[in-house]
Amino acid sequence: MLSDIEISQKCEMKHISEIAKKVWIESNDLEYYGDYKAKIKNSFLEKIQENKNGKLILVTAVSPTPAGEWKTTTTIWIWDALNKIGKKTMIALREPSLGPVMWMKWGATGWGYSQVVPMEDINLHFTWDFHAITSAHLLLSACIDNHIYQWNELGINTKSIVWKRAADVNDRALRSFNYSFDWKEENIAINGWFTITTASEIMAIFCLAKDIADLKHRLSEIIFAYDNHWKPLKVANLKIQWAMTALLKDAIKPNLVQTLEANPCIIHGWPFANIAHGCNSIIATKTALKMADYTITEAGFGSDLWAEKFCDIKCRIWGLKPDLIVIVATIKSIKYNAWVKLSELSNENLDAIKNGFCNLEKHIENMKKFHLPIVVCLNKFASDTDSEISLVREKCEKLWAHFELGEWFMKWWEWMISVANKIISLLDENNENLFNYLYNTDLDIKTKIEKLVTEFYGWKWIKYSPEAELTIKKLTNLWYGNLPICIAKTPASFSDDPTLFWSPRNFTLTVNEVRISAGAWFIVVIAGNIMTMPWLAKVPNATRIDVDNEGMISGLS
Questions:
Q1: Pairing of strands 402-406, 374-379
Q2: What is the pLDDT of residues 494-537, one digit of tens each?
Q3: Is residue 221 scored above 90 in pLDDT?
Q4: pLDDT value at 262 more than 60
Q5: Which of 245, 269, 288 is the last residue of a domain?
Q6: In CA terms, which of 22, 324, 500, 542 is 20 to 30 Å from 178?
Q7: Which residue, 185, 217, 245, sits at the end of a domain?
Q8: Distance between CA 392 and CA 207 in Å, rounded?
Q9: For 151-185, how does the pLDDT look when each residue is reduced to its tens digit (9 = 90+)?
């Protein structure tokens, strides 16, 4: 059996100009990055601004498990299938981060015969978007220290600096460190931290900015520290928002690539969902909506983090409305949530289905709160039995969720066309979009947190640390209380404890910290232990990656 990278390398890719013609993008509207990648120029974005938006399909998933749910793969297959039945369709996906690629997985370009290509380029440096974001982030870090060293005219309180440095690799040694420099014959000691680039506020801003002007304004609003009177200090005070924007001027243009089926794909941006909103850029999504009758986008695992933030943050800020939600699940994920060992997930176990279904049930229950039609797509593996599948189907239909089986190992196009037709029929039946948000941003900060915690996650009590209480009061006094809430927690559980699978209820959530992302326009609420600089595996994936004398890469899958 061929590996993912071998399948992608055997693909005879079409020149990206040919792919662009399928969606009426002319050659002079592209900036080429070789033969198979291009950025879409602003000139094309301006041409399509008056186009009517197509329908928006949001693909999400259950709580992630070690067995894998194949969410991105399903997203790409549905998209290829819609094209197969003659629907004018686009897809907007997130860019992979080097951290996970070098850590323990193979990136975010799909699997098997459902991939976007060139797989190696996309998973590594791609069009250098993440490098540009890292550079803009580090420019701010350098200017903060330089300002303190030179004269500190702003009166920066060195113990109040909240801006971290950034790198797009997992390096646990950089999580925290101390550094110092002499200023006016005084030795100033400063505590420093690194975050991975995808957890940078600049990444969140990059993905929420509608254009260059909006990007520049949002960058200027970043709070990097406080002065001795605890007045917030912003990038605008340092007067470097223009330089930071200059570093991002090319990166902010969406990237065009193709699938193995030679269908056009936009891939652009990715803020981590455990610390930000976890979706591709608003520019990518809005561009796709103007280019096609149907746009598919992904708000990954699980729906309690990414899909909620897609709706309550991304859609709220720019007035988007999804028309349908697809929840990806597997028999193995359901069994795993009944505490079945990984080695036993392939064995038929109807009791485990009954006990573990509560996780999928909670995801369905949560997504129904947005008042949209829901399709549960159950990816079928060879070990899944008819009895297990029938039981899941029965339980889903009792919850009024549409059920489709993803038999991609065996039937391929027959299954995909069936799912595509189901999606189209549901969209045609639901012309009146009743989409709504989970909460009103005019509510105070604690009330918004409590609505998410009790009504969405199923938590019963909230415990705030003294630091979190103080920050909430401070943000309210600074007039930031009307921003959306971004819960930062483990994706592995509805709780703040990654070891609590299934659907735990009646537990206490501990809010350890509250942060303001003033440029991204949301408040980050940190529950449990969240690391923004991850670690590498005991045997990292980087040890398996190689390149031969002809430049062919191996080991990415």
A1: parallel
A2: 888 888 877 777 788 899 999 999 999 999 999 988 888 877 77
A3: yes
A4: yes
A5: 245
A6: 542
A7: 245
A8: 36
A9: 899 999 999 999 999 999 888 888 888 888 766 65
Peptide bond into 118 cis (omega under 30): yes
pLDDT of res. 28: 95
Helix ranges restricted to H, 308-385:
308-309, 316-318, 331-336, 350-368
> Which own/partner contact pairs does 381-390 have at CB distance under 8 Å and 24+ positions apart?
381/330, 381/331, 381/332, 381/346, 381/409, 382/409, 382/410, 383/331, 383/345, 383/346, 383/347, 384/330, 384/331, 385/348, 387/348, 387/350, 388/331, 388/348, 388/349, 388/350, 388/353, 389/331
User: Quick check: is 257 in a domain?
Assistant: no
Q: Tell me how far CA of residue 451 lies from CA of 156, 438, 447, 475, in angstroms.
A: 36, 8, 6, 19
pLDDT at 207 > cutoff 90: yes
Q: Give the residues across from 461 on adjacent strands.
A: 508
Other C-beta atoms closer than 10 Å to the C-beta of 354 total: 13
Considering only CA atoms, give the Rg of the chain. 23
Q: CB under 8 Å to 176, separation ≥6 — which residues?
A: 191, 192, 193
Q: Residue 412 pLDDT more than 70?
A: no
Binned at pLDDT 50, 70 and 90, residue 106 comes out as low
Tell me whether residue 104 is in a domain.
Answer: no
Q: One-letter amino acid identity for 113? A: Y
- Could you list the residue range(s) of the whole structural domain that residue 150 is in? 139-245
Fill in the amino acid letter for 383: S
User: Angle at Cα 51 formed by Cα 48 and Cα 53, nearest 5°?
Assistant: 115
Which residue from 238, 266, 250, 240 is spatially nearest to 212, judged by alpha carbons?
250
Which pair of structure tokens corresponds to residue 158? Answer: 């060195």
- The domain total for the chain is 2
* C-alpha span between 95 and 128 (Å, rounded): 11
d(CA 72, CA 481): 35
Partners of 223 in beta bridges:
234
Q: Please determine, for residue 21, whether its predicted confidence score (pLDDT) is greater than 70.
A: yes
Q: What is the bridge-based pairing of β-strands 38-40 and 294-298?
A: unpaired
Indicate if the pLDDT at residue 274 is higher than 80. Answer: no
CATH number of 490's domain: 3.10.410.10
Taking only the tens place, the pLDDT of each residue in 46-73 is 999 999 999 999 999 999 888 888 888 8
- Of the chain, the percentage scoring pLDDT greater than 70 comes to 97
Q: Is 293 exposed, middle or buried (0-12, 13-18, 19+ CB in 10 A)?
A: middle
Which contiguous run of DSSP H or E holds residue 43?
helix 42-47
CB 381 within 8 A of CB 374: no
Among 223, 168, 173, 238, residue whose Cα is nearest residue 198: 168
